[in-house]
């Protein structure tokens, strides 16, 4: 049991018995998910190549669907990182590296950073790793002018959901962090090598220009969609944030992670990650069991869902009002007479 779970102040541990029933990955289901994701993805790549000779608008239209499949591939990568896609950790590691090359994300480095996110989500004293940059109202008011400018830029929808994600997956993931362990550095270099070999091989088949015309829009679509999903899952009305002394594992999972209710098609493309409250309570549940866990247990049905329409309200949230325990917009600062 992890330290974060032991730290829970919740005396009723029945939830552990509930989630335990869904924590066993089935090899057949996992293999089928690889088949019904990777093969269509490869086929769409081929269609995009053929469409270049017809119309690039058609290519971009196909890229939207291919980008959705790449999001689904990232969920497989994500489950491998949690050790929940296969029972065999060797299999998780192998497919984690393969899908890591496809999503241009170093497996071990990301796995380490994402584990920190799960351990510290909703903890105001442990922000900064694997999170959307979030300041409290007081922190923003005390910040320098330059920090405020950076924060407003970082929170601008164009930067947050388009420029930032694109730079993250195309550039940032290529460079090991200064404090990265040797294993994480090797992971980054191996992923870069895999990306380079993939790019070289496809460029040899179709030409480097054609490769870029196909690969770049797919990455942009998937990166933007993925970051939007992550944002809505942790930046919504009623979200949970607490200082370390009051932080609670169960509360941050059920109240600090949203239930993003998506249409069935989008749920399929996103690997059911919209059931994020369940995922944060137990990251060992494979994505293909999250909905089943939700439907069979009233505990999780008590969480109010966020629809696509309602999720756009999250765009207005910029700061955490620690005094009133809620996310607020920059307009909220007017009460402080801040210019």
Tell me what the structure shows.
61% of the residues lie in helices and 4% in strands. With 339 residues, the protein is mainly α. It has one domain (3-336). Strands 1-4-5 form a 3-stranded mixed beta sheet. The chain has a two-stranded parallel sheet with strand order 2-3. β4 and β5 form a beta hairpin. α3 packs antiparallel against α4, α9 (157-170) packs across α11 and α10 crosses α11. The protein is globular and about 60 Å long. The termini are far apart. Mean pLDDT is 92; it is low at 1-12.
Write a brief caption for the model.
With 339 residues, the protein is mainly alpha-helical. 61% of the residues lie in helices and 4% in strands.
- Poorly predicted ranges: 1-12
Number of helices: 17
Alpha-carbon distance between the two ends: 49 Å
Number of strands: 5
Order of helices and strands: HHHHHHEHHHHHHEHHHHEHEE
Class per helix and strand makeup: mainly alpha
Q: Which strand-content bin applies to the residues?
A: under 5%
Largest sheet: 3 strands, mixed
Cα shape: globular
**Sequence of strands across the biggest β-sheet:** 1-4-5
What is the helix content?
55-70%
* Total individual domains: 1
The average pLDDT score comes to 92
Rg from C-alpha positions? Answer: 20 Å
């Amino acid at each position: 049991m992890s330290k974060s779970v032991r730290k829970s102040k919740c005396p009723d541990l029945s939830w552990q018995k509930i989630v335990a029933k869904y924590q066993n990955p089935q090899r057949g289901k996992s293999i089928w998910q690889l088949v019904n994701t990777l093969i269509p993805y490869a086929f769409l790549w081929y269609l995009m190549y053929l469409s270049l000779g017809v119309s690039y608008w058609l290519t971009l239209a196909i890229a939207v669907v291919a980008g959705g499949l790449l999001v689904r591939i990232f969920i497989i990568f994500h489950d491998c990182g949690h050790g929940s896609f296969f029972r065999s950790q060797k299999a998780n590691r192998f497919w984690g590296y393969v899908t890591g090359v496809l999503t241009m994300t170093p497996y071990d480095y990301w796995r380490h950073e994402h584990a920190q996110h799960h351990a510290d989500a909703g903890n105001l004293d442990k922000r900064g790793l694997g999170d959307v940059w979030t300041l409290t109202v007081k922190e923003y008011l005390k910040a320098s002018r330059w920090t405020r400018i950076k924060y407003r830029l970082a929170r601008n929808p164009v930067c947050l959901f388009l420029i930032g994600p694109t730079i993250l997956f195309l550039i940032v993931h290529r460079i090991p962090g200064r404090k990265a362990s040797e294993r994480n550095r090797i992971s980054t270099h191996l992923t870069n090598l895999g990306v380079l070999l993939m790019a070289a091989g496809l460029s040899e088949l179709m030409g480097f220009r054609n490769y870029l015309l196909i690969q770049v829009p797919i990455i942009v679509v998937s990166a933007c969609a993925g970051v939007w999903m992550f944002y809505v899952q942790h930046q919504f009305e009623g979200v949970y944030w607490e200082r370390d002394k009051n932080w609670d594992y169960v509360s941050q999972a059920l109240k600090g992670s949203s239930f993003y209710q998506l249409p069935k098609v989008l749920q399929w493309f996103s690997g059911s990650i919209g059931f994020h409250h369940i995922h944060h309570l137990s990251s060992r549940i494979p994505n293909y069991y999250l909905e089943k866990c939700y439907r069979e247990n009233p505990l999780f049905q008590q969480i109010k869902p966020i629809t696509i329409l309602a999720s756009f309200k999250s765009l207005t949230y910029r700061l955490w009002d620690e005094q009133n325990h809620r996310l607020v917009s920059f307009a909220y600062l007017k009460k402080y007479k801040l210019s």
